[in-house]
Write a sequence for this structure.
């Protein structure tokens, strides 16, 4: 894409109620090929414009297309993945760095974030929430109950946590491999920081809603319903809050496995959240090493097109965490 065709602005739709209340940010198309959120937001904006929906208190900002370059290209990223290493940059190196210099202050100006995504392959919609309240060094947090309550009301069954801790362990292994081979590796755990992790680090709370597979005609409906439920739960609009589901499956990410060679392969085509049994073969390294599940659980985000040295798949196990 030529410089003249590169997007030069970020479109934000802001609504301010005349009574005080929390400030919500809703994002779509952080990855340019994930447009369920974009379509769900468009439906909400039409209702706001027609008067069918009104923001009564607090404020809400909608960004239907958060990465306009990736969206214009119809692909996940523009020049890099916006949802990794998200932070302001004094000397931006690429389009996403420049975009982050606008997006990060926007996140700072809000209390809560609903980030709408979709995923490759088959599977049902799910929500990713942050850690339990803690004062640790990696992801200190104090708003777990708020995230848990909203997760219960979003309308999806599956709730997943543990992202940043598992990503950090993957970084440590990449560094160890680099040292063993005599290479240097700029592997910063902050590379795992995306919109939700940035929001929590700044004192807010946030969640990622994976609305379903790319292109699923029901995924925009999942996004639309989730936005309305969030507006209702936060009291921003005077609409009815639907009761929460009672059948939630709670999972925690426990391991990330990297692809190390272009000939590493899965033993079969996996979909996110396929069940795996302890000892079940998952993949084979190029040298014949068999990778098997250490315990019963589920495979998450399997990516048969992962580049060597990058995340290949995650493993999750049932979580005893209760939802507020």
């Amino acid at each position: 894409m030529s410089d003249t065709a590169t997007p030069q602005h970020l479109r934000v739709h802001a609504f301010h109620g005349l009574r005080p209340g929390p400030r919500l940010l809703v994002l779509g198309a952080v990855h340019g090929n994930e447009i369920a959120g974009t379509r769900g937001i468009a439906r909400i904006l039409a209702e706001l414009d027609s008067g069918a929906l009104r923001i009564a208190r607090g404020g809400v900002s909608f960004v239907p297309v958060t990465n306009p370059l990736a969206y214009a290209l119809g692909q996940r990223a523009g020049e890099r993945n916006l949802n990794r290493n998200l932070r302001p940059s004094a000397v931006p190196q690429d389009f996403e760095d420049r975009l982050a210099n606008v997006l990060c202050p926007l996140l700072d100006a809000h209390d809560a974030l609903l980030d709408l995504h979709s995923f490759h392959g088959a599977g049902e919609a799910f929500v990713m929430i942050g850690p339990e309240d803690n004062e640790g060094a990696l992801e200190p947090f104090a708003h777990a109950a708020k995230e848990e309550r909203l997760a219960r009301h979003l309308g999806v069954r599956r709730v997943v946590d543990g992202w940043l801790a598992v990503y950090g362990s993957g970084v440590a292994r990449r560094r160890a491999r680099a040292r063993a081979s005599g290479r240097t590796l700029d592997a910063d755990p902050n590379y795992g920081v995306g919109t939700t992790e940035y929001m929590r680090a700044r004192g807010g709370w946030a969640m990622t809603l994976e609305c379903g597979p790319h292109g699923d005609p029901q995924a925009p409906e999942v996004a639309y319903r989730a936005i309305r439920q969030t507006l209702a739960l936060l009291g921003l609009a005077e609409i009815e809050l639907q009761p929460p589901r009672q059948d939630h499956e709670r999972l925690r990410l426990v391991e990330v496995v990297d692809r190390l060679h272009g000939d590493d392969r899965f033993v079969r085509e996996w979909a996110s959240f396929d069940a795996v049994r302890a000892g079940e073969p998952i993949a084979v390294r190029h040298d014949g090493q068999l990778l098997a599940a250490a315990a019963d659980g589920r495979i998450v985000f399997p990516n048969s097109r992962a580049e060597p040295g990058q995340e290949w798949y995650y493993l999750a196990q049932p979580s005893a965490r209760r939802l507020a």
